[in-house]
Amino acid sequence: MPDACSCYTSSMKALVITALTGPDALAIQDAAEPMPKPNQTIVRVHAGGLNFADVMTTKGGYPGTPPAPLIAGREFAGVEESTGRRVMGYAQWAAFAEKTAAYTNMVWPIPEGWSDEQAAAFPVNYFTAYLGYWQAGMTGNPAQSMWGQPPSAVRRSEAPHPRVLIHAVAGGVGTAAVQIGKILEVEMYGTSSSDEKLARVKELGLQHGINYKQQDYEEAVKNLTHGEGVDAVFEMLGGEHTAKSLRCLRDFGRVIQYGTATGKAPQLDIRAMYAKSASVQGLWLTYLSQKREIMEPAWKQLSEWIAQGKLKPQVGQVFPLDRAKEAYKLLEDGKNYGKVVVKIA
Ligand SMILES: NC(=O)c1ccc[n+]([C@@H]2O[C@H](COP(=O)([O-])OP(=O)(O)OC[C@H]3O[C@@H](n4cnc5c(N)ncnc54)[C@H](OP(=O)(O)O)[C@@H]3O)[C@@H](O)[C@H]2O)c1
Q: Ligand 1 center to residue 228 CA distance, Å?
């Protein structure tokens, strides 16, 4: 196998993407064990967190994916071989195997009392959601806020409860965003295709659930905010939803664009941006995770909240490794609640 699998010696079980043709091309195969590169550590993987990016990767739709065959998975929980420490971590691929080689700055200790499944559900969802609020100027701490400049300062002083619209609010990133939004005292509006999912997210603190199968979310936001709109939209759908989300903003609002689950390129209406001094910002954890000056303060804040018992990863479904295809399909079909986890060992 090329690249991700090139420097291995003895054998282990791994979930391999045998071709970039979708989840049906996943197979459990023997692969050589990883040899750590400089600044990497070997982790015996117990559980893997499944991300929408993993579904996209199986189809060759994720930027930077090496050619097949490659080992799947970008998020894991397990035990660091050299220290025996329980860790959770983030990688770009090769996490869904008995062992993975992870960069030391991309592993964090598993909080006390958390299961492997909960830990595997943490890194991508919570860092992404936290950085979404940070980019929206809502983390509240000027030293940590992206610009700490007038729009966010004005919003916080004039509107003590800034508003956010969270798409796919019942998903992995969505449920993390609700837990963080509750801590930040944000007024949250969230979309989902299902009343059942919305009811579960309301228990986490979502104030306004919008079932987009039953009502137009742009109209609903307009009505619920008395025509004012929201300060930020966490937008991961792409296509027409980028332009539509922009129309949900009030003055100086920000669309944080962090995905394209529809598979369509985001449509932008620049004139709508002029009209409200609004902006659309990209957020990509793959890129931001390379920056210690961003990740270290983010982890400091997240770990404080964990210690206070305020963050609890929502694990919706757990699949054994030999049923990983089903896990991928569940996410592909948007049928998941919270995080889908694959048990590795
Ligand atoms: N930029 C980054 O760094 C970054 C990091 C993490 C995730 N993301 C992106 O964030 C989004 C959420 O990721 P996630 O892993 O947390 O997934 P997820 O939200 O747990 O699952 C996707 C959810 O999106 C909703 N959905 C709406 N339209 C969909 C469609 N056409 N196909 C499938 N699902 C659809 C479904 O919920 P409802 O049925 O309730 O609408 C589904 O449950 C993805 O777009 C992902 O690529 C980006």
A: 27
115, pLDDT greater than 90: yes
Q: Which two tokens stand for residue 282?
A: 């990209």
> 314 C-alpha to center of ligand 1: Å?
14
Residue 141 is predicted with a pLDDT of 57
Q: What is the rounded distance in angstroms from the CA atom of residue 110 to the CA atom of residue 116? A: 8
Lowest mean pLDDT among 59-73, 109-123, 138-152, 301-315: 138-152
Q: Is 226 exposed, middle or buried (CB count within 10 Å of its CB: 0-12, 13-18, 19+)?
A: exposed
Question: Of 173, 198, 257, 332, which is best to mutate to test ligand 1, by the most ligand atoms within 8 angstroms of its C-beta?
Answer: 173
pLDDT at 156: 44
pTM over 0.85: yes
| Probe residue for ligand 1, chosen from 51, 131, 214, 234 as the CB with the greatest number of ligand atoms within 8 Å | 51
